[in-house]
Amino acid sequence: MKVSKEQNASNREALIAAASSLFQQQGFAATGVAQISEEAGLTQGGFYGHFKSKSLLVEAACRQSLANGRDSWYALLGSGANDLDTLVDAYVSNEHVEAIAEGCPMAAYSCEIKSQDETVKDTFTHGFEDMVAILQEVLAGSFPNEAARREALFFMCSMVGSVAMARATKFTNSDLAEEIIAATRENLKSLAHSA
């Protein structure tokens, strides 16, 4: 039976969503095509009808996850009294530490990107640059123009690193994980407000 264009597009979206969630929870290497297909409600044959290789799906999932993160940041701008505080509070939070499957892929993927192909590395780098650009725009209100990019890079790396470290330590020392998040959040906000 022939699949409609709408169903075909829906199946592709389901594969990307399933892959994104599983990759962020388990990593690229530990997540197989069979598991992704099953999670998306498709067969492996259905998978290969959309993606010729797992690597192509890794790139699509990475691109979609990063775009979702960027869009969620844009949606937060203007929603609070201070955009930087709003972004820092949303990202550097215990809720984000827990939301691995739905959270920012930078905290989930950073250590694995180096072993991916050039297309995936490039997609990840562009996604990182997009997030830095948002921070740079927000920080331009607190820092001189020449310092805004440097601070945006520092803020982004601190935010991503704190979430990654809190995730890495929470199972053996949940108090430490919470301390990492609280210290990073407070220090970043303090730094921005003292500029």
TrEMBL record:
Residues 9-69 form the HTH tetR-type domain. PANTHER family: TRANSCRIPTIONAL REGULATORY PROTEIN. GO terms for molecular function: DNA binding. This is TetR/AcrR family transcriptional regulator. It comes from the Bacteria. InterPro entries: Homeodomain-like_sf, HTH_TetR, Tet_transcr_reg_TetR-rel_C_sf, YxaF_TetR_C. PROSITE patterns: HTH_TETR_2 (PS50977). Residues 32-51 bind DNA. Keywords: DNA-binding, Transcription, Transcription regulation. SUPFAM superfamilies: Homeodomain-like, Tetracyclin repressor-like, C-terminal domain. Gene3D superfamilies: Homeodomain-like, Tetracycline Repressor, domain 2. It comes from Pseudomonas vancouverensis.
